[in-house]
């Protein structure tokens, strides 16, 4: 297709703009037509594209770009070099970079065809004067020693025919050319994807597991998919329930109580599988092993106990803390970390040996990334600490504006939510960028420890209990409160989303119950 971008390729016809020339529109008629032209060509409707070009007078790329592309595909390197000065480039583009890529392609094709003398001349007299880095030149020079064309292709990462490699070169060069001269590849598809992504991001109840997409209507997930109704109430504790946690498989949920017991419930059958009673004090924290065969329980008096979930039997007790706040497993199923207000962090093996100690601040919470490379802790001194577990060292800390009571780490290990009790806020942090991303407000927290969580499809929601007996759910990206769920008759201490089912979470309350 020939023509000059933004200029007539023939006599432009007068047509109704259908509103596209309306000054209130954010885009121009020319841009719309050119993008449609490109899309028609990409979809294989060349004749339709030609008719539209003739009727509109627009072309999706300039004459210079068309000639430049054709010269590349034909391997006419002299014409390619002659056209470079006439291309409309991006502001940051350097013609030397374009020249280097073109001459490199020329050099490689000569090597593949075993025209060694010509290739050497290109290297010495054309590539070398461009001063594009000695390392790149050395790499190209080393290719002269290749035994055959197969070796050249392998070491230069060329796949397919010369035509294929020229197509790859053309794709590389497109990033240097101004979008007004040549529309970026697959532009209409890119705009569709952006629109879909935006609609997904603003959909309060978006279900990322639903892959169906239509361009005919705007996207909106039905609220009925959201887990806003109590499906079951587990009753069995004789006092306040302080903690609740699903197994990784989602088959079981464990609850820890002030009554010194832990109950393992079957999610499907809705009954107690085991009741673990050998605790010396109220149970404040639980952690399932990565394979769900064991459970760690932490008590207010500092006791840490390991249980066999298959039998419900006590395996081992771990003594070392005066009181313990939290624990977290490493992915090998053999090691875990405990944190305490006694200023100690211990790395244990399941045989009961302390393998490493970190001594510092009074620890309120511990979380370990799924790959075991990173540990995040919170302390009484208003800090979020990030550790490299492989090197067993603290990398840095983030200082918060208030007292931090609890934390929860995202599945990818990059984000953490922390509860600030007195401020009655939940903060979402990017612990890699050390950046506060979002704040969530509306719940009630003053006297008690409230444990929040991320969950739902793609962890799109943040959920929290509250001292008013409600459960609050926010859209994670926008911080918008989307649900206030009632049902409990006292403080909701902990909420945990089922990791295997984005449509289910559990809550633990001072009313002695666990709701599913």
Automatic annotation (TrEMBL):
Kindly give the Gene3D superfamilies that the UniProt entry links to this protein. YVTN repeat-like/Quinoprotein amine dehydrogenase
CDD domains on file: WD40
Annotated coiled-coil segments of the chain? none
Region annotation (Disordered) maps to 1-23
| Residue spans of the WD repeats | 234-275, 276-317, 324-351, 485-516
- Which residue ranges does the record assign to the CTLH domain? 61-118
- Looking at the keywords, is Cell membrane present? no
SMART domains recorded: CTLH, LisH, WD40
Q: Which UniProt keywords apply?
A: Repeat, WD repeat
**Which SUPFAM superfamilies does this UniProt record tie to the protein?**
WD40 repeat-like (SSF50978)
State the name under which the record lists this protein.
WD40 repeat-like protein
Q: Which organism is it from?
A: Basidiobolus meristosporus CBS 931.73
The lineage is: Eukaryota, Fungi, Fungi incertae sedis, Zoopagomycota, Entomophthoromycotina
């Amino acid at each position: 297709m020939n023509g000059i971008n933004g200029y007539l390729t023939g006599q432009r016809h007068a047509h109704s703009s259908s509103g596209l020339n309306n000054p209130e529109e954010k885009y121009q008629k020319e841009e719309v037509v050119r993008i449609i032209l490109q899309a028609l060509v990409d979809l294989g409707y060349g004749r339709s594209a030609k008719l539209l070009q003739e009727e509109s007078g627009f072309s999706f790329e300039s004459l210079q770009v068309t000639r430049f592309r054709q010269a590349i595909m034909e391997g006419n390197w002299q014409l390619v070099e002659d056209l470079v000065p006439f291309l409309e480039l991006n502001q940051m583009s350097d013609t030397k970079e374009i020249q280097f890529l073109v001459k490199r392609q020329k050099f490689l094709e000569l090597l593949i065809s075993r025209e060694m003398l010509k290739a050497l001349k290109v290297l010495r007299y054309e590539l070398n004067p461009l001063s594009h880095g000695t390392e790149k030149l050395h790499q190209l020079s080393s290719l002269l020693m290749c035994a055959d064309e197969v070796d050249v292709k392998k070491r230069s990462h060329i796949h397919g025919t010369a035509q294929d490699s020229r197509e790859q070169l053309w794709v590389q060069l497109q990033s240097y050319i101004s979008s007004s001269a040549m529309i970026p590849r697959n532009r209409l598809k890119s705009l569709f994807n952006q629109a879909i992504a935006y609609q997904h991001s603003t959909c309060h109840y978006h279900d990322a597991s639903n892959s169906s997409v239509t361009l005919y209507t705007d996207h909106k997930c039905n609220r009925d998919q959201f887990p806003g109704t109590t499906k079951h109430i587990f009753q069995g504790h004789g006092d306040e329930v302080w903690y609740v946690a699903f197994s990784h498989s989602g088959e079981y949920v464990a609850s820890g109580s002030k009554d010194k017991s832990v109950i393992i419930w079957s999610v499907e059958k809705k009954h107690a599988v085991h009741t673990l009673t050998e605790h010396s004090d109220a149970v404040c924290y639980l952690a399932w092993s990565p394979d769900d065969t064991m459970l760690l329980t932490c008590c207010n008096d500092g006791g840490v106990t390991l249980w066999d979930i298959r039998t419900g039997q006590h395996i081992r007790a771990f003594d070392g803390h005066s009181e313990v706040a939290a624990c977290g497993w490493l992915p090998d199923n053999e090691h875990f970390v405990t944190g305490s207000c006694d200023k100690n962090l211990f790395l244990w093996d399941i045989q009961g040996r302390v393998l490493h100690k970190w001594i510092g601040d009074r620890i309120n919470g511990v979380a370990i990334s799924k790959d075991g490379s990173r540990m995040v802790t919170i302390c009484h001194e208003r800090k979020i600490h990030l550790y490299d577990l492989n090197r067993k060292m603290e990398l840095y800390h983030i200082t918060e504006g208030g007292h931090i009571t609890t934390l929860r780490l995202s599945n990818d290990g990059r984000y953490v939510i922390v509860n600030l009790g007195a401020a009655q806020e939940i903060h979402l942090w990017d612990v890699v960028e050390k950046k506060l991303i979002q704040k969530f407000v509306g719940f009630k927290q003053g006297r008690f420890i409230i444990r929040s969580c991320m969950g739902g499809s793609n962890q799109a929601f943040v959920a929290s209990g509250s001292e008013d007996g409600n459960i609050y759910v926010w859209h994670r990206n926008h911080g918008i409160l989307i649900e206030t769920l009632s049902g409990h008759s006292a403080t909701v201490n902990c909420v945990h989303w089922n990791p295997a089912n984005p449509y289910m979470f559990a809550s633990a309350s001072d009313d002695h119950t666990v709701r599913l």
